Task: structure prediction
Amino acid sequence: MALRRVPVIPGRTAAGRARPGTAARRIPAGLLAPAGVTAALALLPVGYLAVRSAEAGADAVARTLLRSRTLELAARSLGLAAVVTVLCVAVGVTLAWLVVRSDLPGRRFFGVLAALPLAVPSYVAAYTWVAATGVEGFGGSVLVLTLCSYPYVYLPVAAALRRMDPAMEEVALSLGRGRRGVVLRQLRPSAAAGGLLVAMYVLAEFGAVAIMRFDVFTTQIYTSYRSGFSRTPAAVLGLLLVAITLVIVVAESRTRGRAGYATRGAPARRPPAVRLGVAARAGALAWSAALAGLAVGFPLAGIGYWLADGSSAGADAARLAEAVAATLGVAAAGAVLTTALAVPVGIIAARYRGRTATLLEQSTYVGHSLPGIVMALSLVFFAVRYLPAVYQRWPLLVIAYAVLFMPAAVGAVRASVLQSPPVLEEVARSLGRGPLRAVGEVTLPLALPGVLAGAALVFLTAMKELPATLLLRPTGMDTLATRLWTETGSGAYGAAAPYAALLMLLAAVPGFVLGRRSLEEVP
Amino acid sequence: MKLTVTDVRKSFGATEVLRGASLTVREGDLAAVLGPSGCGKTTLLRIVAGFESPDGGSVRIGDREVAGLPPDKRGVGIVPQEAALFPHLSVARNVGFGLPRGSSGRTARIEECLELVGLAGYGDRMPHQLSGGQQQRVAVARALAPRPGVVLLDEPFNALDRSLRVSVRDEVRAALKRAGATAVLVTHDQEEALSMADAVAVMREGRIVQEGTPASIYAAPCDLGVATFVGEAVVLPAVLSASHGRDTVSCELGDLLPRRDGVPGAGNRTGGAGNGTVGAADGRPGTPGADVTATAGAGTVALRPEQFVLRAPGEGVEGLVERVEFFGHDAAVTVMLESGTVIRARTRGDLPHRPGDRVGVAVEGPVLFFTG
Result:
């Protein structure tokens, strides 16, 4: 998927304890003002989309909504999301169980491989499948999106399995019941949370479905924006997509609360591995190997083939260098702006309670539920009308990155500020520092490594961003992602290969970190 | 500078944490606020420091009312529970944090403060290179450096090993005294409060219930609760009677002499809304006979372990030695009396008691009697 945003748990400050540091104090103006700017910026796209739809009038909105084309798109989008989600849950749960609980040969190895598809941008995977096999449409979209998204189910389910108390299973067995019922019941919250995350990402997906030529909301929004006769349909479709996504976000945050409860605390011991029969072992091995091969091996082999094929030799080195430079430039600017905007909100989220603090923090999470294409569209509308000076200039693209990746940055700032004890700020206050200087001289230096890690994550994610970049990039500027998109669109698979290879390389960095972490957890 | 806290009240939601707490600390004194956990002592400290705002009452440092000021404008030094040194700054920069940057004499003041806590030459170390006790001393130096009006210490020795605690206590007390600082130590450890402070304020349920010197608080607690909180005591039912112009407390250990100043009022001004003064001069054990208000009737007697004398069987009340804890310099002997009452007596370490011995138990000196 093009929108590989890191899932962020909308933060709640630990309630109850009155001291120290989290008292319901007044937020100093020096924090409140910049945080307000951040929140306003984060809310702007959705807000403006609503304004545009309202301006068009109820009639026009109703006409767009009730067109048979709209219903058809809704059916396609939701159908794709439903099928991919079901498949991801099936794949994720079976693989997690095999890796964590069975005596599958090489389960450490498969444990690492299972997280790796996160490192494959979905449009890159789509490109390799289209280029090699010519699959298209619904089937192709389901295939690619399932292979790219099942880790969202696999990771939480594997974590839940590791923390499950083996005593529960033993009790079930001793009572004459099978272990399956107990295990599945315990896994339900984490599998549901992962599944909803998958559904959300599939609805927001643009690149892969566009390459597969399967028409859904996002691609239709893009087309109707491109055709450019009337912008109302695009705005209305965007708003509808946001509404559907929000329903899923709310459902997902509910299950997440319960999943957290179900997996609290570590068990005293590890459950013994379940022994598989000979046939089951062979089947399990084939299944795990096939998944790893299709999800990771196939894209790598595909890119390797096209690189070796020689038809990519014609790729223009100067153009490639230009795209690399442009990608690095806008992504770096995006990371800097995102982090700068996130710092005041993250500090407030970590250190203050009350309605204002909650409101500020949650407004920045809007980007989490906003499909990139919709956000970009709204910014285009807004810029054309009010800020023609930045329309199709890089600042607008950088702002788009900031809105999209704000949740990850705010989460990183909040988490790292929480790790610096509030008592240090109090000592600084008692030694004559005002509230802002106490934060600046003590808390921020201590939180810096975490904040920088968040910035790096935003940087890497922004480099792979496709739909917003496609809409908002300055005329003539190409990033790695948009070049890959263009070349694939014209069937120049060989010419696209170097871009795909570079994107895979970039994407592998956080994937590598994730994989290493899961390696440490596998027994 | 003198610290005056008057009638401070504070509630968190429906919970009333401070119900009119008043406290006065004289300039240059080290006062201890002693109370069980949850009594509101930390909240009181945080209000003095400015981290919480009181719902009512006043806080004065010297002649200045500070209740409405932010923490950075109060001139209050704090030493938190676990030192809380800035981990990203060297020891010298920690100590210098409160000194104006670029001021002349800054380096000299840092050196001076490190010397004060016995850590001269440690300026270039990082906090993680110091032991827990050293960190705590740096925290004291950091609090003292800007010459604050008052230094607040919030259970500063809690995190330290038992063995280390006594020596760090001595060093911190010495440093505060050398600096001439007015300081308030909050603690739930009565031994710490009694041994370190010039004055002790006992806090209970959001109020200061008694203030005085450590000796007067121990010898003349205002009620049974304070008596048992500041030291070990055997509590027995007793009756007070007056005959031949002399008071007598009768309990199962015989007829005893009540401590004349061992009743509320003597040498201590007490009470919930009281604005008593904690000070070495004021808290001397009261003069005998001073406002004795206890009237004849039933009550309780509190006996300190060091008041028991173990004699040969037949002298005093008969008992059976159950247990002997030998500490070297002294010993604690647990004795079960014939009535079934168990007492714990402090005796010299060289007395040859064994579990199973029969002994006679007597009580020496005047005892604490409380009506009701």
